[in-house]
Structures are given as C-alpha cells and as structure tokens.
Fold each of these.
Amino acid sequence: MSYFSTRALHLFPSYALKPEKEKELDIFLQFLDRSEVGDLLISDDLNWNKSSGGRPNINIYSLFATILYSFTFDKGTLRDISSKCEYDLRYMYLMNGVTPSFKTIGNFINHFILPNIDAIFTCLTKKMIEELDINTDTVYIDGTKIEADANKYKFVWKPTTFHKRLCTKIRNLLELIKLADDLPDDEIFSSEIIADKLSVFGSMIEDDDKVKKKQYDSLFKYLEKAIEYEEKEEICGPDRNSYYKTDHDATAMTLKTDYYSGLGSSMHAAYNVQIVVANSLIVERIVSQNRNDISDFINVIETFYKSFGRYPESVCADAGYGSFQNYRYLDKKRINSYVKSQSWQGNISGRNPDSYRVLEDGSLICLNGNYGYKVEIENRHPKKRDSVFYRVNGCNDCLFNTYCKRWQKIKDEDYKIFEVDVYGSKLKRRTEENLLSKEGIIKRVNRSIQVEGAFGSIKYNLGYNRFRRTNLDKVKLEFTLTILGYNFRKFFKYIKGENIKTEWRPSKDIKEEIFKKPSAKRLRNKILKRKTKSENQKAKDNYKYKSNRKRGGKT
C-alpha cells in the first residue's frame, strides 16, 4: 500500500523544489512504500493527534519519513525538525506543507516509533540489503562508548560492601538484645526482617528504660540505611556496579576522550554500543550497560540471528572480543572465526608472546620447542572447570626461562606447570591460523575500513559523541535512528549512482603472514629492565616518604 508516495495536491504551492531533488525525495518515499514499514506504525493511543482546532491533523507517514530524513542529513532533534518544516523546502515537500510542533513530533516518536523500533529497523535494513545487493555472509563487529545525557558528578556506586557491614552491625545489636535467634545466615538480609525485629523490640521497651530506647533509635537508623542501600542495589541490578542520579540506566565508564577536559582518566555516564557491518552497511546494533565488549559479543550475534533468521558465515572483530567463551560460541554455531585474541599483538610482533601453544593433536609446545604432557598434582585442582595441568621439563637450560617464569615466586625449578584449557586453546589456534591466512588479512583490512569507518563517520563527521535522550529504551531508539540515518546516506549515494561498497581486495596476490619469532635475549632484558625499574621506583617512593616525614608533610 502507498502510505508515503501518495501526495496531496496544493493549488498554490509555496515552494519550488529543484526537479532533481524532488525526484530524489520521491525515490526515498517509494522505497519506504516498498519496504512496507508503514504497516509497523501502530499505536494503542488513537487520540494522540486528535485535533481540537488550530493545527490540522498530522499524517503519520509523512512525519515518519521526515524524521528519518532529518536523522539522515541533519541533527534529528525535535526543534530542528519542527523549525525546518517551516522553511526548508525538502522538509516542506515531505510534510506536504504541514508544520508540526516539536511536541507533536516527540509524542509521535514515543507512541509510534519507540514501541516498534526493532521491527522498523529490521524491516528497512532487510529491504535495503535486498535492493543494494549487500552480501551479509561476512560481518564485522566493533563497539564504542558514547556519553549519556547525565550529570557526570552525580553518580552512585553499588553499596554492597557497606550493606554487608551494616548487616553485621545489626546482627550484633540483635544478639545483644536477644532477638537474633531466627536471623538468616546470609551476609545481607532484607529490611523487612529488620522492621519486624524493630516492631517486636518496640513492644518490649518500658518508659523508663533509657538503654533500650537508645538501642531502639540505633536499630531504627540502621533500618533507614538498609532501605537506602536496597534501593540503590535495585537500581544498579545484578550486572553493574554504578548508576547516575540523572539517568539511572547510565553506567560509570572511562571514555577514550573526556567530554569536559580532554582527559581519558575520569569516569563518565555512558552506554556501550555495538554495530554489525556488512559491505559498509550497518545491519545490526545493540545498546548495553556493559563496560567491556566481550560481554556483548554473543548478544549482538544472537540479535543478528533474530533479525535475519540465520547466522553469518564469518565474523571478524578486534581483540576486545577475544575470549575462549566467544570462540566456543562461534564453533558451536559453525561460524568461521576471525576474532583476534587478546594476546594477538604480542604474538604477531614477538614482543610479548604466549608462553605455550596447544597443537591440533592436543599436545603442548613451549617457546623453546619443548613438549609438555598432562599431569595430575596432589592436593591441587585447576581453577577453571575445563582446564588440565601440563608439565614442561628442562627450564633451567631454556633461554626463555626468565620470561616464562616472570610471575612465579620460585624460579629455580627445572620444570614449569601450565594450567591449560585445551579445547579453548585449540579454537584460539585455529582462529590465529585464519587471521594469518590470505583471506584473514583481507578481512582484517576490511574490518578497519568498514566498521571503524562507520564509527568515524557517526562520531566525528557528524559530531555525534553524546546521547540527547535518557534511559536505556530512548537511548536505543535514538541510536537506532542515527544508524538508519547512516544507512540512508548510503542509499542516497546509491540513488546518485555512486559506489557505496567499500570492500577492499588486493590488486595482486598476497602472502600469508607468520608470527614473528620472539627473541629470548630481548624478552629477558625486558623483564630485567622492568624488575630494576620497579625496585628503583620503590626506593624513590621510600625516599619521598622519609623526606615528607622529616618535613612534617603528607605521607
């Protein structure tokens, strides 16, 4: 059905749009009709735009197209859209001459777009993939942190430690007044239990008993503090340790660039965003409260599966996603892994290599080429469930001895014990082989071009480095509309005949890479230099401490 491209006729049009621009906008509206996104603009509130005189009723399809266009080429703020509908010929054409207020635009976004944002994004993206002939077999994943619209100085840490100490004080007080018989053994117990004990204790107090009255007052203050801690812990939830008073869903994170002072050392209210890119088009996105990318990796791929009904054939991502858990997930879903491990840079350069590698047959080989074998150690078990112990002999004659045993207290033993997750290490080795292959090199280059380029365009070209809305749902809405705007910029370039696919292919045959062979002498000197530096730093700190003591200054 033609929701968008059917235009009302004006007897006296007040604008004269250029024919090429009018044709471009018509193609845009026809695309929205072909995508059938209009069927998703549903709201339970049928009276959201009921006219009682004054401004006429708003065509929701024209308004939706105008909002998308604003996020494509402009800021996408409510007042910006409202004002441009009055003087910008493109907006006047899309709105058919109607000028909505910023309040109407905000109500429309909250009633129609917000509840259906996931379905709208999937609908438009799938249609764009189809018409632009985008291949989604290989996808590239990356994430960044974007600052929230919250006061960075008004944040709250999760008070779990203080809550435990408070419960200990309450337990001691209840034992003193002999009301602690049926208390739970948990470190933290609920305020309801404290309130019941307070009620029982209040009935036991006589008018002239000053000691018990003082104890009652103390228990009452403890109850107030316990309720406060419970409220803060409920806002934080089980998976994070902080929130901000002006946006409870924002989490304290360290950003790469400080919004206020240009430093990257202080905490800010922020959200973590992840995008999935295929052939320069952003095909999936999530917004989370996690402070690292590893935790969002499985979630973003499952979101891709939910939208497209299948998993990609290959996934390429940087070292921020490299973990055994993620490698296991990719292997289980039969997805080719091109995800760098966290030790990738150290291995490829030879400056900080892994101390061992697990081969395909399950055997272990150390840096010196010595093979290890599985052992069981009496009265000691591996820290991880899927790990086993390997022992490598001949360490005293090994040139890498200083490097391999840099964290051990006892360094003169002629052997080294490794705790190894065999299956995870095998998957890591296969991933490294994929990354070192010719196809792996091409994918690594394309990842830096496509997904880094997408974030560069959004954050720096458009200056989008801070959310304008608060709470998780509205931030997700805003980011999704921003992503759709990025995709539609690609679509308008396609309309003009420009090439939007930026996949890099080498002009000539390239060679497979290998890990650089580490230098035992360089690694040994590096460890000795670090040790000497550490000892010198301790001596300097000790000297400063004694000097301050003599001068009577701070220690």
Amino acid sequence: MVCGLASSVFAGPAEWVNPFIGTAHGGNTFPGALVPWGMVSVSPHNDLKAPSGYAYGNPDLYGFGHLHLSGTGCPDLGGVVLMPTTGKPVPDIEKWKSAYDSEKAVPGYYSVHLKTYDILAEMTATTHAGMSRYSFPSEKGEANILIDPGHRLTADPVTLKSPSFESSVKIVSNTEVEGTVESGDFCSPFAGNRETAYFVVQFSKPAVHAGTWKEGALKDDPNERGRDIGAFFSFSTAGQEPLIAKVGVSYVSIENARLNLQTEMPGWDFEAVRDSARQSWDDALSRMEIKGGTGVQRTLFYTALYHALIHPSVFSDVNGQYQGMGHKGVMTTAGYTRYHVFSLWDTYRNLHPFLGLFYPDRDLDMTKSLVEMSKESGWLPKWELAGNETSVMVGCPSVPVILDTYRQGLKDFDTESAYDAMVKSLNPKDNKIYGGLKSLLQYGYIPKDDDSGDWLWGSVSTSLEYSYDFWCLAQMAKDLKKKDDYEKYIHLSGVYRNFYDPTTGFLRAKNRDGSFMTPFDPLVTCCDQSWPDNGGPGYVEGSAWQYLFFAPQDMDGLVMLLGGDDAFVKRLQECFDGAHYDATNEPDIAWPYLFDYVPSEAWRTQRQVRAVMEKYYKDSPDGIPGNDDCGVMSAWYLFSALGFYPVCPGSNTYQIGSPLFKEVDVHLNQMVYPGGLLTLKTINNSDKNAYIQSIQVEGVDYKKKFLTHDMLVYGKTIAFKMGSEPRR
C-alpha cells in the first residue's frame, strides 16, 4: 500500500496518492490503473458483488477487469476480464481464482503477486486502452491468459440468471482475440440500462494453443457466444519471461476498439505507457500545489483529488464516435469530448462546482454532453451510464449542473437548447423520468398518498429537490433575459415551506388533503421503499433530520421559517450534538457550513468542518465516509481543506470553512480564467488554531460571510489569520 510521504518538499503530487483509500467500509473505490477521466481502468476483482469489483482484504482474485465504476452504491460494468494462470486452462471462475499478496498501487499503475500461480501481474492504462504485463514462473508448465467476458459485476455474479445478457469472443489469430461484453441493471433489474462494450486483446507473442469455452466446456472453436463463455491462450514462456497483453475498448464497435488501441498503444513498451500514465496524473494533480500540512493530510488531499478526477469518464472514441443516448445509434462529437457516468444527484452538490472552478475545460465538455444527451433522448439525464438512463435517485439534477456551469462563465455550449431541455424536464407533460411534477404543481407539494400514477421515492425529498431545481431554472431564465419565465418559476422555489410543521419543527410528509402523515418519528430511516436504507417515510436515504435544512436556494428564508437566528442555530447544533448528521450520504453533507448564515455563529462551521475532516477521513482503506459516489465525498474534503464550500451551486458563492494548509497555490486554467494563480494562505494555522480571526483579500480586510466565484478565478491572494478561540 502506498501511504503519504514525510517530505515537506512539493514534488510530483502523484507520490502522495494512496489508491487503496476508500476500498473498504463501503467506499467502493478501486486500486487499479487508469489515467484522469479514463474510459478504461485495469483493476483487480476480488469481490464480484462489489460495485467496483474490489473490497480490501478479500482473500482471492478472480481476474483483472477493464471497465469500472468508482464509489457507486451499486455494481455494474466490470467487463473484459483477463486472468493469468499456469497448468491446464480451467474454465471455472471459482477454480481459477488465486490467493494474492504484495499489492502495490500508485496513480497509473497496479501490481500484485498471484500466490497460487507464482505470477507477478502488473497493469497500466491510457484513456481507451489497458496494458498488462505478466511474469510467469519457470517451472509451472503452460502459461495461460483467460479472457472472460461472461462475468459482469452484479449482485448475481456467478450464475448470471438474466438470460438477456450475453457476451461473445472470436479468436482472430494466435496473438489476437476480439469480442463483446454486455452489462446493465444498475441498482435494479428495473433500471432498464443495458450497455455493450467492444474489445480487442493483443498479445506480445504467439500462443501455442488457443480455444474457447462455454458453460465449463473447453472447445477448439474460434467463436463463442452466450453467458458463461470465454477464450484461452496458452503460451510457452521461459523463466520469469514477461508476457504483455493490450486491451482496447469501445462502446461503439470492435473496429473502434482496435483503432483506440492502435492510436494510444501502438508498441509494447510497458514502462513507457506506465510513465506516461504517471505523468498525466502529475499534470492533473499539479493544479493544486500544497505547502505545509502533515504527510497524512497531503495524502488525504491528493487522494481525494485523484478520486475526483475519475468520473464522469470519457465515452467517445479517438475518432469522436460514441453511442447515442438511449441507443440512438452511433454519433460523432462536434468539437468536444463526450463523457458518461453522471451520478448527478450526488455530483451536482460539489463535484461539478469543483471541476468548473479548477478543471473548467473538462466540466464544460461534461455540460455539453448533458445537453447533447437531452437532444438525443428528449430529456436531461438523471443518472446516466454508458448512454443509458438508469432513472436512479430523485429530482432533476442536471438543471443545477447546467446553471452552475453557465454562471461560472463557461457559456460555450448550446444554451438555448439547454434551457429548453431544463424547461421540458421540469414539466409534467409526458414525463416518464421525473415523477411527481403534476402533483407538485397541483398541490404545491408532492403528497405521500400521491395518486398521479407516477413512481415516487420520498415525497418530501423529491419536492425539496424540485424546489431547488425550479430556483435554478428561474435563475437561468433571468440570465437569458426571459423575464416572464423567471416570474413563472421563481415562486416554485419556495414550495419547500409547504412541508413545515410548526408543531414538530420539521419538514414533514403531507397527504392530499393537507394533513401531515402520521405516525411521525424524525429519527426513522426506513421504509419509504422496499429496499434497505432507503429512507424514512417521505425521505430519500435519510430521515427528517437529514432534510430539515435542505433549502440551499433560500437559506435566509429557512432561517426565518425555523424561528430566526437563535432558533436556527439551536436546531442545527442539536442536529450535530444528537448525532443526527450523517457524513456518509449526500442529503446533509453541506450542513456543517450552514452556521455561516448566522455570521456571529460562523465559528461553529469552522469547528464542525475540522471535526468532520478529522473523524471521517483517514489514510487507510476505510478512509472515506460511505460511498465516494463518483468523487463526491472526496470533493467535500477538497473544498473543506481549501477553506470554502458551495452550499448552493449556481449562486456563485461559497461558504467559508476552516482552511487546512499553510498555503495552497491553485494554478487556474488561463485559457478560461486569465487570473492565472489563486493563492490561499493561512497564518498561525494548526490543529488547535482552527478558528478564523480575520480574512484579507489582496491585503484588504474582507468582512463578507462568503467568497465569490470572481474572487477565486481572478488570481487573488486570500489570507486567513487563524486562532485557537472562536471569533464571535
């Protein structure tokens, strides 16, 4: 395992990354090799039910997949699995698995020793291709590479009961095999997503024997199709002779998979590919240059940054082709890179604001991807995976992403089409993706006993998300000079108030007749739906406590609704003191920053942010609180360590926390933000000196309770003077 280094000298930041952080305790990250935002990731599978294929500490490896999700709560993808073995090929995943040790992971490289076969397996990657190098022992007989397209990551990994998912292999020559992998059913067999990945595998030397298998039977046939199928290549190798396998992947065609491979990985120089991958990470991570802090803090920061630069991932091939949204056929990008894996209910809250600030060229292309998806399918995506709508989670989370991108000054996308898609997706007419809108417009809230026929999860939570979404739509209308539309939508941003029950002081589920649903317990986290941990009645993955403060678009109004400054602070502090705050899930991760809305109590935010960073983030496999959710928990740490956080994406304001490092120099993208360098400094900073005494911007005292986007991107120097006592 790679841990933080003790040096205080700023070197290549990839040295500080520990890819094993988040691989245990439900973080659901993976330790394998990839490049920033890469389509391909070559990573070990030691748990075929794990969302990423890997759970730290499991005893056996089943192979190395090339397509993965990082930090999600459900499994999918996992395709194009290679497994090196010795002896006779055995076409049974439970019999070819291997014990392992000596794992090593750094950005762009992973290696492990397969104890059962005494094989050293190493892997690295480019954007669309993976390269593996296997060093076989000298006295174990045949050296095999098993190509297993039949096992996707799923809750039913071995039997794969769904007959609709099939894969294929075709042996092209004694050095090449091609095929397809199907996967889908993300989070539910009713999700409806189904993706096909195409692959080409090439070997550095000819095989002495190659064949296929189906349902456990070896064959000499060069072609096979079905569920439990695969191919094997057997080689004659001298002692410790390395064998290299290259894998090109595409979601369009086998021809494109081969083109991706030929373009990005034409040779067989493993070290050159590994060094290039490492350099790509050093380049991306060097956007943030840290001075001060402990080795552990640096490791946590750069590992969080590493995880934040995985998803959304590149989806288009080197020729610009991609699979259109909803299987609309092969399309070609026009001047942008297409992305996929949009976990938007999670990522709108902080990951996209982070990318828009610090990697604006990438975030702009991601927003273009969302807009083009709406043109292809008719709707903005909710949770998109490989060109499919999975319909997971609630609200219309593309809307805040588009507004935030636009307001950050990243306007080089089809804004009129984007606006039309925002309007359509928040309109109940013929809307099969965003349920509850008809009732929301009829009642001013979505009733718990809704009879509209829409599928609903968490009537309160969904209504609160829509309330914020309508605020975002109103702001977009305002910026585009659509005054009538602004007036039409802005009042809908206040529907959250209709759930407030002054008797209990909570936002409660209501019935169609206006009565509050009973019984009511603000601590209940089950069971709005049938699956575990789905949320209390009316809520999504949370309780009434986790949703009490969700009105990011109108925090001043919420403060008044809850009784004014003193009452608001009392309730918010009660949330933390009573252990009702949940740092492992999205609904309330912004809550530590809400004390800022009562300026005299901002010190509570500073105390709470430091406490969360200290308690929940660690340099160990269980070092992320809950699922990383495609980088969201990592982005929370990044913002918090820098000293600010976007409570309300789209507002271009950031609440102030408690910066962690002596200095952070942020090298802005000068093609977008000409300021060039943002410098965040602290004076007298330490674990004890966590409270801000004063702030200066360019040497001038700063009194506001928030930072602005313009301050951050125009090359300012912001200095925080810290102390051990709160400044009230």
Amino acid sequence: MTVFERDGRLLLLDAGLSFPHSEMFGIDLVLPDFSYVAERADRLEAIVLTHGHEDHIGALPYLLREVGTNAEVWATRLTLGMVKSKLDEHGLLAHTELVEIKPGNGTVKVGPFTAEFVRVTHSVPDAVAVVLHTDFGPIVHTGDFKLDETPVDGRVTDLTRLAALGDEGVALLLADSTNAERPGHTPSERTVAASLREIVRDAPGRVIVTSFSSHIHRLQQVIDAAQACGRTVCVIGRSMIRNINIARNLGYASVADDGLIRAKRLDEFMPHEIVIICTGSQGEPGSALTRIALGDHPAVQIHHTDTVVLSSWPVPGNEVKVNETVNRLARLGAKVMTEATDYVHVSGHASAGDLTRMLETVRPRSFVPVHGEFRMLQAHARLAEAAGVPGHAVRIADNGTILELDEDGVSVVGQIEAGTILVDGLSVGNVRDVVLRDRRHLGSDGVMIVVATIAADSAEVLADPEIIMRGFDSPEDDGEALLEQARTAVERVLDECVAQRATEVHVVQQRLHDALAELASRATGKRPMVLPVVVEV
C-alpha cells in the first residue's frame, strides 16, 4: 500500500494484506494500519490496484469500511472481477464506483494526478505498472512483474513504452524486489506446461494439483494438460472455483463445460481419468488439500496411485505448514511433487537479471526498491547502483517513510506510524498485544483453573474445590499425582485464609495463584496460566 499526495489530494496504490505468523494465535488476517488514509478520507481521490493478488487487493473491503466509498476504485478487467466478488461479500459493491483500467490507452486524469497504465506480465493476468506524470518527470511504479517474452496469454511487459518514458526522463522508479537476490532471469510461465503434461500423462491414477487460486495461467495449463491427456477436471475449494468462474466469464480462461465435474461425481470416473485442481498450496487450515492430507475431506481420500503436485512455492512463514501437508500426503501413500523435487513451478517475479534490464530500460534519476524483505530491498538497491543510478539517489524506505520528490530528486522528509491491524474473526483492529501474549502463554505452558466456593464473612470452604488442568503434562504417567498435590495446596491455602480471616476475594485469589504457580513450576518445569475463581456465598 503506497500513498501518493499532490496538491493536498491522495491517490492510493494497492490495498493488500498478509497472513498471520505462527505466533499470532487465532489471528485470521494482517492488514496494514491505514489510519493515515482514514484520517484524510475526504481527500482520497482513488484507489488504484495493480493486480488481483491478495497482498494487493485483500484489504480493500476493510479499507473502504474505514474511509467510505466516495473514492473510486481503479483496476483492470480481471482484477475488477475479483474485487467485485470481495466487495459483494462485504456488502460494499452497490456503493463503490469501479473504473476499468485499459493499459496502453494513454493518460487519464485522476483528480490532480495524471496517470498512465503500462501492461506488465505477472503470475496473474491483467497486471499493470502505474505511471504518475509530475512537474519533475514521471514516477513509475512497476507493481509485481516479470519479463516473460512468451506469456500464456501473449501479453508481454510493454518495454517499448517504458523505454519511451525513460527517454522522457523518469524522475523516480519504484520496483518489485521479491527476487532481487536470485541471479539470472525468471523462466517463462510456458516452460512449466511441458512438465505438467508429462506428469498428467504418466500418472497411474489421479493427479491432484494445487496452486494459488489467482494463478489463472497456471490453472489453465493444468486444464490444458488434462484435456490433452483425455482426463476430466474437478475443481475443489471455494476461492479456486470462484476465480476460475470469474476468469472463464471474462474470457481469461477456457475449459469446455463437459470437461469439468463437481466433486460429488468423482466416483463415476476411474482414477486415471481425473485431474483435481484444489486450494491449499500454502497449507492453510481448512483448505481442500489440507483436509485431504488429514483424511477429513468428504469427497477425496488419498490412494497409493495418486500423484499430488504442489505447483507453487511456500510464502515465507508458511514453510512449516506446507511441509506438514507434504509429509501427511506421503504417509498416506501419495507421490508428492514440489518445486524442490520437480519442475512444477516458476516464479511470477523478475530475477536480478530482469530487474537490471528494467533499470536500464527506464533509466530513472532516483530509485526506491519496494515489495520485499529488507535484504531483498538492499539487493535491489545494489543492482540499481550497478545500473548507473547514483548512490545518493537510491532510498530504501521502511513502512511509514515519507518521501518527497522535487527538482533535486527524492528525499526522506518524515515518518508516520505504520504498523498492522489484526483481524480476529469479526474483530478488526481490537486485538491487543496482551491478548496475543496470553494466547502464546496458553499455547506454550497451558492453563490451570481452580474454582473455590467460600463463605463471604469467614472464608470457610463451602464445597470441594474444583481443579482443571489443560495443555501441559506432569512427569507422572497419569497426572493424578499432580492433581492431588494441587488439591492439597488449595486446601492448605484456604485453611490459612480461614485461620487468618482473610476474606477479601482478591487476597484469596492471589494466594491460590501463587501456590499453584509454584507447584506447577516445581513439578513440571512449566509456568501455566493460573486462573483462580473464588465464589463468595
């Protein structure tokens, strides 16, 4: 998410989200902190989306709830198709003005901004770079891109227009840094097609393929391989079904109606007649492939003749979940093929050689690497200097950095608060650090709960205390010894409270807490969350 400001008006480029790390217990999504934009909602002209991936459009419904729907949403045809589905789910579609971007059609006015859209190739069709024409020269933001000279849809990155902008004198280039550490050039998407066809042709049973649900070209190549080998395709997974339907309706994917079946019809076909395309490439809980790996899917159970193809790469942070899925599938008897073992995936991002070519084509006076971990931004910055951008004109910006472009180039002029917003079920932005800390505590050390009923005036025990232990093991085989020790400790504390006439609830609770915490630490080496509940009668 990048904010451009001119004459007091704002243009927002992309509205993406990320997925929670393993320590974010119970968190569903991670959004950028867009309070800076929300506080200036009346000045927001438009939200421009470069392509249809979740890390570029996923936060849009949450953003529109905060800023309202006065700002237009600009995107290409396929991206709009994906956005419409999201906005409809959130009840925002009828109130949002959508404007279709047509790459290569010259400049358009967006408030005080003069914008231009240049086609680029990526792992989802209809991606664009955004050009903002300023008094100091054009600003070029590449969005996510690769330089694929033989893309599946024949729509190559428009280097001719980018070179013309370079001749005009580009003031600032912001470019995708995801693969800046990878040397050489990213292979064409078409190079995967032959490998996929061989896998489908030679597989003795079903072929189950998972990839990103927005990777329409990859899905099309799987469908083409299935059709070429006389197999029928079954699509499983809500987002996969939705995106394939959107792509078919808009003409970005092609498959005959009789070439697709629903999951409930799988039993009508022999295994060697089927290719299944499903969600779950990132090991997401509840996704189709994860449920299949757990033996929990209602329509698909793994057979030893099955071949499972993970035609994707694990997003950083998802490696453990993906490996768990692969191991479960292998244990069930499937042959599992990943990018680490077979040629089943190519990246949608430009590698170092392609990034250098982009720099040499655009020839910017100033450069800011974007989209990547810091080490990737740093690697891209080195490429820029090697390509001739002066070192003082290369800026690595953190989230929240304010850059200013003038006749002298780009400079850092400030910093705003730019953290994250956590989505927990229906709660957006209300999850505090203390909540996550408690969840981590529960996840690592467990919980011990004691319920004691006492007389209000004397602290006399009126019922046997109840003790509940969850999430940790005692050294004893059955845990009964620790439970008995806990009962003894609780009774001792309550007897002491009666003897000392300590009737204040918070005093009884604190003494119970301290006694049980010490016992658990001594007996198990853990520090479970101890929750004493004292009921006065």
